Write the structure tokens for this entry.
Amino acid sequence: MLKNQEAGFIRLQTDVFRVKLLASINDVILEKQRIVLVKGEEDVAAIIPVNEFERLEWITYDIKYGQFMIDEEYNYEDECGIPCINIKELEWNFEQILERVIYNNETVGLTFPTAAFEDDIENFLTGAILMNIHKFWIPDYWLIK
């Protein structure tokens, strides 16, 4: 299990995370840990369990749009699927995927393959979400509204 926990999450340098990638993601999925990835002195990304991501999305929705919103005000462009990648792909292309998350503000689901029940079909279950740190922190100006 990872140490260095403060305020409900663990801060890890990106190079340390890369070495402990599988164990760290395992802790996120099984132990419900939240990891903030740090590059240099700056927080750049977060990895959280799927259920916490869903809760964060609902909180963001309630703050951004309010409880009593008119349907015409809702921005349906905010709703879209999240691309998912296999943990092995993250391990092989870590720097490129992290750059997309940091600079393009992408959100990526991290999956483990499950047993195939039919010929060559693989089923995937999303276990964790890799996202830009700005999506992880709720902006102060949203809370002031």
